[in-house]
Amino acid sequence: MSPKVARPISYGKSSTLSGTICAMRNMILPILMLSTLASAVERNDVEFAKPGGVALTLDLHVPDGSGPFPAAVIVHGGSFSHGNKRTYVTPLFDVLSNAGFAWFTINYRLAPDH
Fold it and tell me: Which residues form the domain of 75?
């Protein structure tokens, strides 16, 4: 008897989660390409997706210097029902920045509205 192998979950192209992940990737990769600039990049409220007409935004920091840089995508707590991209996670920003990380903190649609 051969061992069972776990198969990854496929959300498909029509999935909201899959679409959001693709939108984030498409937004974050060009920003990381800015790493060839000599100065740090910090931006707030960058729209990365708009599922169902709801704008999803992120804040970001890319360190100065030539990359590539390690990166962290920060997803706030709140049980998917409350909070925002800065709730509970702001203490991480300085720690990650001082360690040379690019970081991205994201908003997501909250229940019960979505």
Answer: 16-106
